[in-house]
Amino acid sequence: VNLLTREMLLRKFGELHDCRFLVTSAGRVTWGKGFDMLIEALDYTERDVCAIVMGIPIGDSEYEKLLANAVSSRWGKAVVVLDSVGQDLLKVTVYASNVFVVPSRYEPFGMVSIEAQALGTPVVVTSVGGLPETILDLRHDPVKGSGVAVPLNDLRIMGEAINDLACLTEFIDTGDRNVLSKLKSTWAMNIGYRDPQINLRANAIQWIDSKFREDRLRELLRSCYEKARIYAYFRALTPL
User: Fold this and answer.
1) Helix axes 155-174, 200-211, angle to 10 degrees
2) What is the DSSP letter of 55?
3) CB burial readout 69-106, b (16+ within 10 A) else e
4) β-pairing verdict for 77-81 and 147-150
5) Please, are residues 25 and 35 in contact by the beta-carbon 8 Å criterion?
6) CA 197 to CA 193: how far, in whole Å?
7) How far apart are CA 209 and CA 36, in angstroms?
8) Which one, of 70, 74, 18, 3, lies nearest residue 48 by Cα?
């Protein structure tokens, strides 16, 4: 974790200390992206869960100050980058993460969620806009799930979901069963202890391959067009 942050020779605030689990997020530094909620949700994670927010500044100095205050209150647990991170470094950081978080207050779709899962990193998203459509929720499909959707503004549930996905991926990566003792939610305990072979990283990649690759998107577009054509046909037959 510290090696990654040292490589980010960019404008940033915050530091990371004694981190085992890495949480990442990325996007424009604006209130709508909800990075402040991610930082505050760290209060409901284990002490060794840390976050890196790779931000793209848009000149919102007030929101940057709000993030700085949130980080200073949780010193050692979070870093917010205020310069564009190169694509290669961004991908490496997300790939090395235990979990990627999209804490948006509003989001029409959420391409970053798909990009993170394509790298094999499970995600936590807020239940707004199209974000829930970008994941297969583990609570509904504990075998093939790729992430968790959490209610907007519920910091405790967000923090617990971040914590538990981080622990589950760490167990997958290291085989250390001790991390399972850090799980906080019932759904995660059920997965960790009843189905310890579940590979969330492989699930994330398979979910993206099955739903969001180019050939699949063509099929979806063709299906939508056909439904629209049928709707227009019957609408034309219906008298006003």
Assistant:
1) 110
2) E
3) ebbeeeeebbbbbbeebeeeebeebbebbbbbbbbbbe
4) unpaired
5) yes
6) 9
7) 31
8) 18
Q: pLDDT digits over 23-53, tens only?
A: 999 999 999 999 999 999 999 999 999 999 9
The alpha-helical segments, DSSP class H, found in 175-213 are: 186-194, 200-211
DSSP string across 2-25: HHHHHH--SSEEEEE-S--EEEEE
56 burial (CB, 10 Å; 0-12 / 13-18 / 19+) is: middle
pTM confidence score: 0.86
What is the helix (H) or strand (E) element at residue 80, kind and residue range? strand 77-81
| Dist. CA 238–CA 26, nearest whole Å | 48
Q: How confident is the model over 56-91, as pLDDT tens digits?
A: 999 999 999 999 999 999 999 999 999 888 898 899
State the Cα–Cα distance between residues 234 and 84, nearest whole angstrom: 50
